[in-house]
Write a structure and sequence with these properties.
The chain is α+β, with helices and mostly antiparallel strands. It has a single domain, classed as Nuclear Transport Factor 2, Chain: A (Roll). The chain contains four helices and seven strands. Strands 1, 2, 3, 4, 5, 6 and 7 form a seven-stranded mixed β-sheet that branches. Strand 5 and strand 6 form a beta hairpin. The radius of gyration is 14 Å and the shape is globular.
Length: 129
C-alpha cells in the first residue's frame, strides 16, 4: 500500500465502508489522536485506541449515523476527507445531515491524528432535544 496520507485515508474509508473495522483500526498508530469539537457530548481530545473506543461509546449514547461516500484529497502528510453524515438521536428520533471534514495526518503509512469538523454542531445538538 502507498504510504501517502491520501492513500492511507482512502484505504481507511474503504475498510470502514466494507465493514472491516479491525483492518481500519490497524491503520492507526498506537498513540493516534482524535479531536472532536468540545461542544459535542463526545467532544475533546482522545488518545490511542482506548480513547477512540471511549469517544465512540459516548457518541453511541446519543446518536446513530449513516455516512455517505467520502471525498478525499491531500498529499503525502495530510489528507482531508469530507463525508455527508446523517446523525439520528436515539432519544428523539430527530435527524440532521451535515458535511463532516476530517483532517487526517499520516506518518510512514499509519494515521497519527484525525481532527474532525462537523459543518453545524448546533443542528446536531438540536436533534437531542
Amino acid at each position: 500500500m502507498e504510504h501517502s496520507a491520501t492513500a492511507v485515508a482512502t484505504e481507511m474509508a474503504r475498510r470502514f465502508g466494507s465493514g472491516d473495522l479491525d483492518g481500519a483500526f490497524a491503520l492507526f498508530a498506537d498513540d493516534v489522536v482524535f479531536e472532536q469539537p468540545a461542544s459535542l457530548p463526545h467532544g475533546g481530545r482522545w488518545v490511542g485506541r482506548a480513547g477512540m473506543s471511549e469517544m465512540g461509546a459516548r457518541f453511541g449514547e446519543h446518536w446513530t449515523r449513516t455516512i455517505g461516500e467520502a471525498q478525499i484529497f491531500g498529499d503525502d502528510k495530510r489528507a482531508v476527507q469530507i463525508t455527508p453524515q446523517t446523525w439520528t438521536s436515539k432519544v428523539t428520533g430527530r435527524a440532521a445531515t451535515v458535511d463532516v471534514a476530517e483532517i487526517i495526518t499520516a506518518v510512514d503509512g499509519v494515521i497519527t491524528e484525525i481532527r474532525v469538523f462537523q459543518q453545524d454542531t448546533a443542528a446536531l445538538l438540536a436533534t437531542l432535544n
